[in-house]
Please model this.
Amino acid sequence: MKAFDMEQSAWARFSSEERRRMEEYSAAYRRFLDTARTERLAAREIIRQAEDAGFKPLSEYTALKAGDKVYWNQKGKSVILAVVGSEPLEQGMKIVGSHIDCPRLDLKAMPVVEKNKIVYFKTHYYGGVLKYQWVCMPLSLVGVVYTADGRQIDISIGEDPDDPVFFINDLLPHLGKDQAAKKLGEAITGEMLMPLVGTYSEEEKTKPQILELLREKYGITEEDFTSAELEIIPAQKSREVGLDRSLLMSHGHDDRVCSYGNLAAILSAAPCAKTQVALFADKEEIGSVGNTGVHSSYFLDFTAEMLALQGRTEELYLRRALRSSEVLSADVAAAFDPIFPEAYEETNSAKLGYGICLCKYTGARGKAGSNDANAEFLAKVRRIFNDANVPWQVGELGKVDQGGGGTIAYIMANWGCDVVDCGVAMHSMHAPLEIVAKADAYCAYLAYKAFFESK
Model:
């Protein structure tokens, strides 16, 4: 491949052999997408692939040496993988941090309601969504329920082609005069996002019949919904888009396109002096909160446990390890969309198909809430990518006063790490179905692998 050129697409830079490998990678990524439909399923699949590659739980080790492959399972919803380097851990780590949660609709604690003999699920949307996008499309119900006696029951309805699906109604245009006069963000409210569950009953009420179906098929009662994590997601699996099949459509590209690149990279990267760490976090879409989000202590705990297995138990070593570490915050970026040019500053926007995107800062308006990576670290990352012939580009999140967003970068920077945002640019971010370019997804893998293997 040629040296970095902002005007040349990744596709144009790839040889025929590299294009073949890109297609193989895209097929593997689609299998991951269609399996890892929720953060729990993503964590499960990541651990399965890691164990197949020789990774073991950190708790099974009594000491660590170079080349050891370890993982940490945080409550079944976040995962950390690490390959121990030849240097002491306090000299720093190479970390790629991605997240495996994504915008969706969650069932409320008491979700089953009946209105005029029609039964619905009550939902609470998770993360930033445009609510009008969730109506009039086939939906699945996926997640877990814990019964009163402690049994875990996996739920999956709508994922198999023979399954029934769920559906959220919209108002017919013939009666939509008042709705059409509302602002786009007000025409569908959060409380209107109620999937249809059933209508048939020979009794006076329909809800008891629906609850009986759930009891017969899954052995759960209405009370069991209070100890459940059930998600409404599009029933549509991943598909290729365009006559040239250059794009991929799926639910959850944000941020599983970076997470899969992160996973594939750490499983295939050659070990090096620095310890290589792949983080797959939960709760990023709602502020990285809770004990599976990056604001909690588990990444620090994991690092401290590894240090202890190397005979370093004092807190000072933990602080040294973190402030000597380098991080790619692997989260998606906004690609310029010519249908909505007014939202972007084209000169500083990423483009579909032009490689991995480096974002010096995210945040909102005056960079509020941003990490704002330092120039020295950006220069080092550029050299790593150029030396490895990884197609890359730069971008930011739209016009300065248009809006904004954030990643986990600032949290890890608070630990003292050098951090820069580095992810796949996409269209229709946070929509039920999102778009990425195959070439960009593949470049994410190439970029993270090159970073893991760098000095």
